[in-house]
Amino acid sequence: MAVALTKRRFSVDEYHRMAEAGILTEKDRVELIDGEIVEMTPISSRHASVVKRLNALLTGCLGARAIVSVQDPVQLSKESEPQPDVVLLRPTPDFYAGSHPEPVDTLLLIEVADTSLLYDRGVKLPRYAAAGVIEVWIVDLAGDAVEVYRTPVPDGYADVVRVPRGGSLSPVAFPDLTLGVDEILGPR
User: Fold this and answer.
1) What is this structure's pTM?
2) pLDDT band with cut points at 50, 70 and 90 for residue 1
């Protein structure tokens, strides 16, 4: 007879206390998704390059109009705190010193996907939508394109567009900012 096992889920507060106690350290590449501590995939040099490129482009173009947050937590719920690659946040004087940003603070969330594309689409994206993140871009490195997800609905996003090399896109929050997919992806 098989015995049903129960998983122990953690809250964001418990997850933070594990870090404070030294159980989790900065060397641990993990994030909290639905109460489970999930190990993140290693960062390839191309992935890191695209994240750096996005940081430079967005910081240079937006200045003080948004805070560009790189690989920092966003608290989606009491049980989920992923660490997206790049997030544009509403500016605050304290730069979110008192707490991690939440979906209401998020103007654009970007995941750069090398080996994590299926996970980003199948696991993280539905949680971003359910939490009300208004816009998500998934930079598909293998497919040389950027997937744009807008208008969150309970089971995903109502508006989805895939923009290949040669195309350009603008965040909903900053329609005056146009980025080329080639600018984002860099040289082949």
Assistant:
1) 0.93
2) low
